[in-house]
């Protein structure tokens, strides 16, 4: 979408009536076409996705110039597949005890900050965010200060991908005799990359002005991730869902239901 915005700027196209999208087309060979006896699989579906995001008709060169019939294609990620069509408000997060620490485990772009602002901030949770504090050591320091000052509820917004870092948070909570729970975001990599791009390109959805992340941020989380070890002896293990609204394009909205769990953990 950045390339599209640049094109509009270059040609001084701003008003809605300056461009007729319904009569516009985009021709490209990165169409996600499946392999056949005539040709190999397309290397990408980026051209088709580009046209879809803009909202204009798409053709392959063979379809447009040679009048061939459309070939079957596959998208590895289709935002419409995540449309819930459900207007019911998601379940509210409930405090597990009079005091607790909540750590989040999930990829960048999984909805952790949205979860905080919509669910935890109204409950009075203090916030420890590595995106703001920059280093893990500073997060531990600030969290310790919060607990020493008597904050009853503490929320930690890092990816917390592996058991080693989660064990440090568990130890900190134990030091202050405070129970700890984990909110585990299960959104896949492609959903998270999509959400990150939507956030970076939408000022309304990006009050903290975060820049788009490199792909390494997502692959790194995947490579480091270790499953949480759940303490089922402690009440409070259950599954829920959070709805996240994002924009696929300037004119199209997407409602995604992202599965998550919150539970007591041992690692």
Automatic annotation (TrEMBL):
Going by the entry's taxonomy, the superkingdom of the source organism is recorded as Eukaryota
GO process annotations (BP): DNA repair
UniProt-listed Pfam families: AAA_33, PNK3P
Entries under InterPro entries matching the protein:
HAD-like_sf, HAD_sf, P-loop_NTPase, PNK3P
Recorded GO MF terms: ATP-dependent polydeoxyribonucleotide 5'-hydroxyl-kinase activity; double-stranded DNA binding; polynucleotide 3'-phosphatase activity
Specify the protein name: Polynucleotide kinase 3'-phosphatase
**Organism in which the protein naturally occurs:** Monilinia fructigena
Print the organism lineage: Eukaryota, Fungi, Dikarya, Ascomycota, Pezizomycotina
């Amino acid at each position: 979408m950045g390339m599209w915005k640049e094109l509009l700027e270059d040609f001084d196209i701003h008003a809605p009536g300056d461009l007729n999208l319904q009569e516009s087309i985009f021709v490209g060979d990165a169409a996600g076409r499946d392999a056949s006896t005539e040709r190999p699989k397309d290397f990408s579906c980026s051209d088709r996705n580009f046209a879809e995001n803009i909202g204009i008709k798409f053709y392959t060169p063979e379809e447009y110039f040679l009048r061939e019939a459309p070939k079957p294609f596959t998208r590895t990620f289709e935002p419409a597949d995540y449309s819930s069509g459900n207007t019911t408000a998601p379940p509210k997060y409930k405090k597990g005890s009079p005091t607790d620490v909540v750590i989040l485990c999930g990829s960048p772009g999984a909805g952790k900050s949205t979860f905080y602002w919509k669910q935890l901030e109204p409950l009075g949770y203090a916030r420890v965010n590595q995106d703001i504090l920059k280093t893990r050591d500073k997060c531990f320091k600030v969290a310790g200060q919060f607990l020493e000052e008597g904050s009853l509820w503490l929320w930690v917004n890092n990816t917390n991908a592996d058991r080693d870092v989660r064990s440090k948070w568990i130890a900190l909570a134990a030091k202050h005799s405070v129970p700890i729970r984990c909110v585990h975001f299960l959104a896949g990599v492609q959903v998270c990359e999509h959400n990150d791009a939507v956030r970076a390109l939408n000022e309304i959805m990006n009050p903290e002005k975060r820049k788009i992340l490199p792909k390494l941020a997502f692959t790194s989380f995947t490579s480091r991730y270790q499953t949480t070890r759940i303490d089922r002896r402690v009440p409070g293990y259950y599954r829920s869902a959070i709805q996240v609204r994002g924009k696929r394009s300037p004119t199209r909205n997407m409602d995604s239901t992202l599965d998550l769990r919150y539970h007591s953990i041992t690692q």
